[in-house]
Every structure is written in C-alpha cells, then in structure tokens.
Predict the 3D structure of the following.
Amino acid sequence: MDIERKDVQAQKTEAPVDAERTRHKRVYLPNVDIVEKKDAIIVFADMPGVDEKSVNITLEKNVLTIGGSVEVEHYKGYDLSFAEYGIGDYERAFTVSEAIDREKIEASVSNGVLKLVLPKTEPMKPKKIEVRAS
Amino acid sequence: MWWPEIGRLQRGRSPWHDMQRLQQEMDRLFSGITVPYSQDFPAMNVWISENDALITAEMPGIDPKQIDISVVGDTLKLKGVRTAEELKEAETYHRQERAYGSFARSLKLPFQIESGRVNANYEKGVLKIELPRAEADKPKKIQIKSA
C-alpha cells in the first residue's frame, strides 16, 4: 500500500437518510479505517464527542452498524461566531462478508476513536452437496 | 449488440466517455452538499463572549502529549501529529479514510489573549480551549462629565 497523506484533513459527511429519526438531530458518517488481519477484522471509526457509554454497535445477520450519540453543547453567554463542523450523531453500516465470531467481538473507545475487533471464525470446511436423482 | 450501435450514433465515441462525464458532473454537483465544511484539520468552532473565547476542535485519536498549543498576542497556534496504526505483514486495508500526519493551524481572535490564564482540555477526541480576554484589552466605559 502506498497510501501516504502528509496533511491531515477533516471531512464530515452527513449520512443519507433512509428512515427519518424521531429526534431532530443531524447524523454524520464517521470516517473509518478497516484493517484485515489474519484472524480478525479491525474497524477504527473517528467519532469525536463519543465515549464508551454513548456508542452503539449491532451486528445483525451480516450487517454491522456502528452508531454514537453526541450531546450538543451550548455555552451560556457565548455566541457561536465561527463554525467549521456540525455536531450530531454518528451512524454507519457495513456488510461484513467474512464469517465473524459474534461471541468474541471486542469494542473500545479512546479519545473519540472507536476500535472494533471482529474475530474471524475457524475456516469452514467445504461442504459437498449431493444431488439426488428424483 | 447494442454498444456498437450507440457507438456509431455518437460518431465513434465510446459510450463510457459519456458515462464518465455524467459521473464527473454528479460528483461536482454533490461535492458542495456533502462537504459543507472547511478541509482544514482540525475543524474548529469558535464561541465568543464579551470577556473570553472558547474554541472547540474535533481531533479524535490524538495523544494529548502530541498537541502543542501556544498563544501570542491575539493569535492561537495549534500544532500536532496524528500517528498511523502500523500494519504488520499480511495485514491489509479494506478502507482507509482517516488521515494521518502532522497538522498546524493558527487562528486570530478579535482581541488580545491573557496568555497566562489559557485553559485547555482534551476529552472524547474534542479539544476545548478557553481564551480569556486580556485585562488591558477590555472595553472601558467612559463617563461623560457634565460641565
């Protein structure tokens, strides 16, 4: 891999709306890195403002959804005079192709980055399907 | 056999050319909607009150020791490094959207900063800096004397 980016750039993209949420709050797509190791897939997601209590991860069938809610802060007596980023929740879903061992998924959040370790299951044995003559 | 047909109608031009052009057009159209914010890192929000300013910056995954904040006059300087995860052999990226490297930004405030009372805290990937206005720079109320 020859990806090398010297300048760090921020980019926050709003998530496309599938179904409307009941709360009026913006939803952003977190930037992610997904690394495949021999025995696991590791997901890193940038979710500033999210801690281990406000993160929400689900794996249903083969769809992995990561989400996080962020408290919108208002500072009394201050006016927001310049804004480069918006505050809102995070949500993003991925289709996981590998067989994942659901019991051993680990998640941790540190400094606003979610790290998710999805261990792969033992390689499944090829199964031969017999065709019966009717 | 309808690709050659279209090709002939377009005077030999590849249909892919048109699709590519359409793709570019779409990208251009949506680029303004999906990225409404500045591309500078870290993205900052600035809150200002009469006597101080509060700056919040989204910079997830940075070691607080790697953040360097300095204040000169009315300018705040922010420098730091975001270090990449090192990949071992047989490890590959499926996606790499998070960027790494060094960054530096400076921000000029509308008043002089009392550098001795600047407070910064880094929590949940968000840096918050309190910048009080210098005493000498605060507005003075002027009494009008009547003759």
About this structure: The longest helix of chain B spans residues 15-34. Chain B has two domains: 3-34, 43-88+98-135. Residues 85 and 95 of chain B are 13 Å apart (CA to CA).
